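Reviewers of the previous submission asked for a worked example of the structure-prediction workflow described in the proposal, so we include one complete record here. The input consisted solely of the amino acid sequence. No template or homolog information was supplied to the procedure at any stage.
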Amino acid sequence: DYLYEETKIQTKVADLLFQSIGKTPKQEGWKILFKQQTKEEKEDVQTLPLVIIGEHAEVDVKSAEKETQPPKAFTEGTLLTAMKTANKTVDDEEAIKILQEVEGIGTEATRASIIEALKQKEYIQVIKNKL
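From that input alone, the workflow returned the following C-alpha cells.
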C-alpha cells in the first residue's frame, strides 16, 4: 500500500479562507512501480512548513500562469458511447436516474440518425474525423 502523511493549513487573509494541502510519502507501496512523474505531477506536489495553530506568519505570494488543455474532440464513435452513457456526465441525481432507466440519449437504433441530423443542421461538423 502507498501511505502518506497529509498536512492541511488554513490561512485567513482579509476575511478570505485559503487552504493548502501538502503530502509527504511514508511508504512507497505500489507507486514504486511508477517512479516517472510528469511535469504537472511534480509541480502539484508540495511540502508545507511546520506551523503552530494560531501562528501569525508573513508569506511570499507567487502566481503561476498555466494554460489549460481543451477536452478531446468527439469522434462519431465516442459521441455514440457518450450518448449511451450520458448518466455518467451529469451531476443532478434525478437526471442520472432517468438517463440510467432510458439507457442514455436516444436508442441504439436512433443515436446515429440524431448525429446525422445535427450534422445536416450544421450544429456539428466533421473535420479530420473529429466532431
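The two ends are 42 Å apart (CA to CA). We consider this example representative of the routine output the project will generate in years two and three.
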